[in-house]
Amino acid sequence: MLDAHQKPPDFLKDIYKKYQKQKGEALDQDKNIIDFSRGLSGTQKSVFEVKEWMSAEAAQTVFNTFTGSNQNHIFPERIVAYHSLDLPGAWRKSHQPRINIHP
Prior knowledge:
Order of helices and strands: HHHEHE
Helix content: 25-40%
Structural class: alpha+beta
Strand content: 5-15%
Shape: extended
Low-confidence stretches: none
Distance between the termini: 41 Å
Mean pLDDT: 81
Radius of gyration: 17 Å
Largest sheet: 2 strands, antiparallel
Strand order of the largest sheet: 1-2
């Protein structure tokens, strides 16, 4: 059972402290942060896989369903949906994919 009042483990505290202190440029250069615009590192490629490509129209439908709106947004022609291999079973076709815009 999860306890909302339990202190986080030390390794999570250390990660929090590291990123809390970093400035913008250091964050941009940190290879441990996933930045789809610069591509995935070798380690990240071993954890994330491309699950499917979505059209802009499909992305609009997913976005509107998620937000409960009918607003039109400009999406790239094709959008890649990634799956984390660290979360086995998390990807099911019945779920709407998480959208990471990566033209």
